Target: Methyltransferase type 11 domain-containing protein
Amino acid sequence: MSCDSSEKLSLPEAQEGFLNIVRKLNNSDNLKQFLDWIQWNWLNDCNLKDTETSEEILDAIASDLRSSLPPEAILPSETIRPPAFGKNSDCTQEHTVHVDEFLYDNATVDALCDEGKLARNYCLQCGSFSTRPLTFISHSLSREKLLLIFKSVLPPLDNKIVLDIGSRLGAALFGDRIEIIEGNIAHRPDVILSADVIIMNNVFEFFMEPEQQTSMWRFLRQTIKSGTLLVTIPSLEETFSSLQTGIILSEWVQELPSYNPDAAGITLSADEMLEVKQYQIM
Model:
């Protein structure tokens, strides 16, 4: 077979040629190795440049907001209620430090502690060396988790509507064509029904009593349309473990793996990545 290396291909011709190569590979292992080769040699550089640009934009936004907001970034209109049940039930008013992870990453928190502007420990017996670490909690997505969600977990979102419930500073939605809706999500089923992707970062636990959380989840169970992608932190299983919702998860959602698990530029640990779950509504 002869091949003219100077021949130029249109996009449809290139796509068809690529599909012909894929079809001719003799087993799934070779197909995976071929796609890995493309990822490593052609895509990683492009993705890394895009990721670096995204990180620079997010860093600039966070830097601007830090000058206007305190570390906890809790507004007067917000009421924080430490949960009485579940994983975060140890978050007491006295010994919990609220630090917004979008505004203050680990390096910034370390710097504030070194400067004496934040403390990491509290004294169990005044004047002694008997201390215990303070609990740090955030109500916003960190920049690292944002990159994980949009670069690795979710598929391409061209022409899709993304809804971030309880957005607070709007970290998940910095971009073009944004609409801010203020109000109780239970009063806007039309917004939920319009969404192709819904992001929920521990949105109810610190802001509602268990009975209100249960009511809200039942509303979402009845309202979110089939096929919608749901990204939650923590997992639905963990959230529902301390609530009596009556919702059978296996009849409502199917957990999905990350769309691009080998995405470049992800710096989170394996445990941190496991906190982010993606489901599809059945």
Notes: The domain at 143-281 is CATH 3.40.50 (Rossmann fold). The chain is about 35% helix and 10% strand.
